[in-house]
Design a protein that fits this description.
alpha/beta; Rossmann fold; 12 strands
Length: about 350
């Protein structure tokens, strides 16, 4: 395994510290004894930050919360002061949008530029770890077939998404490209990027806005009981994504992008993992719906199921090469069945999952 040097002599900053991945990252940093500067929208809101302060109370590290806004220039200055590493995790992942530019692209792109402009102005920062996504590598599953050997690697970039098609993927792509442009325009600090696939597993706070929870909820609430579309994608345990950030920050030789994905799964396979534990207690789907049927009725059932989306994503193979994350970051991936089962149980325990 590569040598990891957890140098706790200087504070570290985590943007979007109340987020899904960020929560587990903050936990790991506190366990290692770091002073963590957590940048959040409202540090005085215990409903959003209480789980973080509770973590700090039982950890050797120290947590300091700061108010910051992705779209407010200079707002990360106080939080970043004196920090050696900046983890930029803040970026929306949701399908509940009315204006893709305002709700997805601006926070991702302008937020990244805002944070990195502050990095440029903060001499103590030596490394930035950016939470990007496999969505910055490919847009639709059909793009995988066009990659060399039909396998995604860190060399590929998403060139097919736009503000009007796969707006979330577009937002992650333009934000990561902007980060690389800013990193390459200077020589003081180093950029290392984590590109997770679908992140699953329990959250450290009871309520989360990540779209991952909406997907798993729909598998159990009856929305998809008649069947799921045949869609393949990568998936990864949230704790492995947090660990990838730790390694990217503190392995001196870490560089570039890192596909962080345990393996390929389908929606039906995720449902079968849940059935192994929960049996027939919940209306979990048992079959895949034919592509032709979704082509006919999908757009009427869900506006996200456009004909273009169906044609470019359903019934197609997904494959990515995660070897760089294993060799250069030393990641060992957790099994996905445990991650999705724990996530489902959390939705039940917190009352967020009810049968329709």
């Amino acid at each position: 395994m590569p040598q990891v040097n957890y140098d706790t002599s200087t504070p570290v900053l985590v943007t979007g510290a109340t987020g899904y991945v960020a929560g587990w990252l903050v936990k790991r940093l506190l366990e290692e004894g770091f002073t963590v500067h957590g940048a959040v929208r409202d540090p005085d809101d215990p409903a959003r930050t209480g789980h973080l302060t509770a973590l700090a109370a039982q950890s050797p590290g120290t947590l300091k919360l700061f108010r910051a806004d992705l779209l407010q220039e200079g707002s990360y200055g106080p939080a970043m002061e004196g920090c050696g590493v900046v983890f930029h995790t803040a970026s929306p992942f949701t399908s509940k949008i009315t204006d893709p530019q305002r709700d997805l692209v601006d926070p991702a792109l302008k937020g990244t530029r805002n944070v990195l402009a502050t990095v440029d102005a903060t001499p103590s920062v030596r490394r930035v770890v950016l939470t990007s996504s496999c969505a910055a590598i490919y847009g639709d599953t059909v793009d995988v077939a066009e990659a060399p050997g039909g396998v995604l690697t860190e060399k590929q970039w998403n060139t097919t998404s736009s503000i009007g098609h796969q707006a979330y993927s577009y937002s992650k792509t333009v934000a990561e490209r902007a980060a690389w442009e800013m990193a390459q325009a200077q020589s003081r600090w180093k950029l290392v990027v984590i590109n997770p696939s679908l992140v699953i597993g329990p959250a450290l706070s009871e309520t989360q806005t990540s779209e991952s929870f909406a997907l798993i909820r729909q598998l159990g609430d009856g929305t998809l009981k008649t069947g799921v579309p045949h869609v393949e994608l990568g998936a990864v345990d949230v704790r492995d994504v947090a660990e990838a950030h730790m390694r990217a920050a503190f392995i001196e030789a870490a560089e570039g992008r890192h596909i962080t994905s345990a393996r390929t799964v389908s929606f039906l396979e995720l449902a079968m993992m849940l059935r192994e534990k929960f049996g027939d207690e919940w209306p979990l789907p048992r079959r895949q719906v034919p592509k032709w049927l979704i082509w006919l009725v999908g757009p009427m059932i869900n506006k996200a199921f456009t004909r273009r989306m169906i044609a470019r994503n359903m019934g197609l193979a997904w494959q990515a090469d995660n070897s760089k994350s294993k060799t250069e970051l030393g990641l060992e991936y957790r099994p996905l069945d445990i991650a999705v089962q724990e996530m489902f149980q959390q939705l039940i325990d917190t009352g967020q999952l009810r049968r329709k």
